[in-house]
């Protein structure tokens, strides 16, 4: 057997031995399909030695006879073999090769390596890509330090022309390991002059909290949408401090699209709102130390009304946080039913820099609810894409066992966290989405002209200066007046051959996107999310529901006080 397949063979066996150590009480026949199990009754007992022999023989046959011959990618064969084995156990146990393991650790560190800029391409009226442009840089990132700005056309990267290249090609050329150079030639939109810029790729902050600001007088908004990473709680503490200083009395905590991450960080955020002794979650597993409740340790928790926003992409640690606040009646949960991932994974480093992420336990909310939704049919496609109430306008009624919150409200187990108030996200058809995507080209082209003072009567909209970070927008910041809208419509008709009626049908989209572009030019891509938030029907409803959240918090506090009083009486 060749050296590469020998390595593959030994690695697969090492994974087998690790996984079998968690199930030594089971015979191999118990995990085989029924047909194989039935056949085993008439054959010899399957042993580790037999599996080892069959695996070696299979690999040898593949090498000698498969049509791919010497072109076999052993890493892919190895990965698919291990993943196939793990996915017979559950959907979330996974194998990471050395490169993926390194990316996994990077993702949890709240940073990535690159130049620290968002880019986007611009096409002409025929749909042909003209070039890729800098849309924004991040504060203190390499691209910002190098002086790149909104509207810089990327002409060359490391000596290769990228004019007319697809966005994905340009993005891949900009990426690279930390400490490596990216030599760019950029053309300044305002002057047309070309400049050479060398950027050394470095760590770029990737915060958990995308944005936090006062969305209404007295109402703070925290978009905790970037997952739970090593810096999440520290970011949360800083955001709360700033918002309180600006007069926050009520909070909307946005967990939409938060796919989870480090559970310890979710625990610490929940701990900020729960009092000492209140359970945050319970972890139940078969290994020593994996079955225990995790309780809050906070003698002075936050008491302000809280609404938590969730959707079908809120998963894992975000579900633990939402479930804890819901069970203790500490926050009103608004939005859509969450994904339903309640399995605990633990990393097990392997030889050659790889890693096995193995499910070792399940999570329960304080009321005893299981978060995990059913995966018994083994269909991973349905599991990841089907989702609860996916594509259905009517809320799916929960089917799991009932449980009670502190104040006696009924909640249900299994299938994620069901919101207290269902608010569906606004959706559009695929056809409409494609049409709007094409409209982004004239919008971006026109915004460039406005931002660089090239449109008469709108010179006061100029934004050809370094980005002013950490700005909270107000109604006076780049408003899309009727005059500006009409000017854009004429531009789209003249330059991109749209009809006035076509633009008019998408007026709201145009106004929102045009303002977003101008705010991005002046204040960066993070601040530009504030424009989109004003069109987010789930967020707007969350703000309306804050009085209900206040009443719920009072009921939860009353239930907690009654429980404490009853406990004292029982101990007398």
What's the helical proportion of residues? 25-40%
Whole-number tally of structural domains: 4
The dominant shape is globular
Distance between the termini: 75 Å
CATH domain class name of the largest domain: Alpha Beta
**Quick one: CATH superfamily of the largest domain?**
2-enoyl-CoA Hydratase, Chain A, domain 1
Average predicted local confidence, pLDDT: 87
CATH architecture annotation name of the largest domain: Alpha-Beta Complex
* Alpha plus pi helix count: 18
**CATH fold field value of the largest domain:** 2-enoyl-CoA Hydratase, Chain A, domain 1
- Gyration radius (Cα, Å) is 28 Å
Low-confidence stretches: 1-8, 17-42, 387-391
The biggest sheet, with number of strands, parallel, antiparallel or mixed sense and barrel status, is: 6 strands, antiparallel
SSE-based structural type: alpha+beta
Q: Proportion of β residues?
A: 15-25%
What's the total count of β strands?
Answer: 21
Key descriptive features of the protein:
572 residues; alpha+beta; Pdz3 Domain; 2-enoyl-CoA Hydratase, Chain A, domain 1; 4 domains; six-stranded antiparallel β-sheet; six-stranded mixed β-sheet; 18 helices; 21 strands; 19% strand; globular; disordered N terminus
